[in-house]
Specification:
The protein is mainly α. Helices cover 68% and strands 5% of the residues.
Length: 229
Amino acid sequence: MSDTIIPQNGIELEKSISTNIADIFFRAQISKTIHYFIAEKMIQMKKVLGLTNIFLSALSTAGIVSLIGEYQFFIKENPAIVKFVIFCLSFLSTFIASLILYRDDGYLANTHKVAGDLYIEIRDDIIKLYNQNISGTLEQAKVFEKIHRIRHQLDYFGRSAPQANQRSFKYAISRNPDKTEIINAIAQRTFPFVPTTSLKGTHALPITNRDNYSEPDQPDLFAIFKNSP
């Protein structure tokens, strides 16, 4: 956790506000992207494992029926091999079913989604604070007070949020603007950024009108969360 230092000089004070807002916005945006990315991958994994288990269960069941029934048309010459194959299919099906229960990707994906939503709320508070600062509706001392409070929120959520991995962190870094870009955007009054995907990769576009700002659409994989309590 880093402390918020309040300088006395007017110009330095404004620079400090910009730097601090950029820092907490960067942290919130990166954390949000990390948790949404992990939630999406976990939902994908759950679907892959589930469909694989269904396919293997169907094959092993069909093989067992052919052994105990009157459907001997494909196992007359090599019954031992066929039995071994059926055993392997049944074993894999049971193993994957147990793996699905053990991993519990649906629950973990939901916890990461909730964490991402919390970081979005913090990020929106930062954008509101930025607008209050540039409009002069909030005293600079109050701005620093709110920055300090948001830092504590970020630190708390960082300790409480589900664990992330290095891959998700690298993805989030590549998906979002760095602190220097955010500071420049604040100085040029083109803050905040909205991550946008282009044909050549991912980059960030500035939004100048807060009224037109909206969160980019999430992948269809998140439809499962829309009706969740």
